[in-house]
Request: fold
Amino acid sequence: MPSSPDKYSVLLPTYNERENLPLIIWLLVKHFEKCNYNFEVIVIDDGSPDGTLEAAKQLQKIYGEDKIVLRPRAKKLGLGTAYIHGIKHATGNFIFLMDADLSHHPRFIPEFIELQKKHNYDVVSGTRYAGGGGVHGWDLKRKIISRGANYLAQILLRPGASDLTGSFRLYKKDVLQKLIDSCVSKGYVFQMEMLVRVRQFNYTIGEVPITFVDRVYGESKLGGQEIVSYAKGLLTLFATT
Reply:
């Protein structure tokens, strides 16, 4: 029996993650079951041409339809809309958002849950920039871009969190729904706007130091277009919040 009545829904958007998906699912199941937490993993695949959905179907046969829930979409529609799609199907009262490329290790999940329970936080966010958090596998250029983007966001937006551009987070489901309903950004800026709205609505937030590891398989989705979109989104949020 689960150790508490709470249930945790992990929203896992995927695009060309066939090689990473079996390992991230195995790690999620391992760490949730080790702590006896009730959970489900909702895989939201955006029409991956590499066979990600087929791999997910095989994993569903292994772990069960109650644990691995498939909610695919026909084509790539963006991260924000993937979360909107996923939360509609989530049966948990808490929602984890994380990447499927192994950059967010599930071993930190028990720390998120314990911190949330201790303080009854509305949001718990993983941080690379405080309390022993860090990044592995990035070259100097990407580290500078990430640090610079986060620093600029801190100066302009003052969100009350040390890692505004990260995406490994735990939310109360009703809180996440209100945040999603209020957000207007798309892509990578979506994560940043979420924490800005947390401050606006006076929700409480805690932080867990995490180690972010660059993807082992596949190519990064971050490119020049995403960096330009980030800059535009940051200025929009500064002007409107």
